[in-house]
Design brief:
The termini are far apart. The protein has three helices and six strands, in the order H-E-E-E-E-H-H-E-E. The protein has helices spanning about 15, 75-80, 90-105; strands at about 30, 40-50, 55-65, 70, 110-120, 125-130.
């Protein structure tokens, strides 16, 4: 019986980790005055770059969260998101990195980051990450 040849994609561990060691600017916050509500931040023109091909990726990035003691300051959040514009990073990593940085900035009650990335080569991708993460309960 012939051995099945393992299919290679040309993607390396360096591609998989690309962008994750980037020094992102801090996301500033301001003192929350209320409890029990949710905030939705929508970036309808989110862009990044494929770490292998260098081609641009386009999508809609949304951040939904319930603030605890502080809220995200939108101008600094916009400046934070601009860093991705020329950054080679996988879409899955974008969503998870943004979630980590939102949680670090404002310690929300809960948060959901969703990336709805436009088709490239006929395939679109939707990635969603939630806090608290299942393994952090």
């Amino acid at each position: 019986m012939a051995k099945k040849k393992k299919r290679t994609t040309g993607y390396t561990d360096d591609h998989a980790k690309a962008g994750l060691d980037t020094k992102f600017p801090d996301i500033e916050t301001w003192q929350n005055q209320f409890a029990g509500y949710e905030i939705l931040v929508d970036d309808p023109e989110f862009t990044s770059v494929c770490p292998k091909t260098g081609l641009p990726d386009f999508g809609v990035l949304t951040i939904r969260y319930s603030p605890r003691k502080t809220c995200l300051e939108l101008k600094s959040l916009k400046e934070y998101l601009f860093v991705y514009r020329n950054l080679g990073i996988f879409q899955e990593n974008i969503v998870n990195q943004v979630l980590n940085d939102v949680v670090k900035a404002c310690d929300p009650v809960w948060a959901v980051v969703k990336g709805d990335f436009r088709p490239r080569g006929g395939i679109s991708t939707i990635v969603e990450a939630r806090y608290p993460r299942p393994d952090e309960k």
